[in-house]
Amino acid sequence: MRPVLHGDVSNAARALLHVPRALRRDLCARMMREAEAADVYARRAGRLHPFWGNGSLMSAARKRVLADEPTFDDADYCACFEMVLRGLFDFRAGPTRK
Q1: What crossing angle do the helices spanning 75-92 and 6-18 adopt, rounded to 10°?
Q2: What is the pTM (predicted TM-score) of this model?
Q3: What are the contacts of 90-94 at 24+ separation with CB within 8 A?
Q4: What is the CA radius of gyration of the chain?
Q5: What is the domain partition of the chain in residue ranges?
Q6: 3-class secondary structure per residue, the chain
């Protein structure tokens, strides 16, 4: 996965916000796997992945419907934002990652 910036987290959180709570954790993990796979593909093939883009989390997230971005006064959006951050931590700390 390419380096993660604020916009990546925001877009992923908006994708999560658009789906029911029960589906969010799986979608979060799926977007990270897609971003990772797209990054590997782009580096090897020298072009964007046909479905998931350039290997950024933002690109993987933007393949989905995104909720309008609320402010951090919205507790549900904060929970989605936190889920993405925690997911990134877990993804980076996974057994195959350094």
Answers
A1: 120
A2: 0.91
A3: 91/1, 91/29, 91/32, 91/36
A4: 13
A5: 6-92
A6: CCCCCHHHHHHHHHHHHHCCHHHHHHHHHHHHHHHHHHHHHHHHHCCCECCCECCCHHHHHCCCCCCCCCCCCCHHHHHHHHHHHHHHHHHHCCCCCC
Cα dihedral 82/83/85/90 (nearest 10): 140
Written as six digits, the tokens of 35 are 């971003």
Backbone phi, then psi, for 71, in 5-degree steps? Answer: -90, 175
| Cβ atoms of residues 9 and 84 within 8 Å | yes
Q: In sequence order, what are the beta bridge partners of 53?
A: 49
Side chain identity at 86, as an amino acid letter?
A: R
Question: One-letter amino acid identity for 3?
Answer: P
- Parts of the chain with a pLDDT under 50: 98
The pLDDT assigned to 86 comes to 97
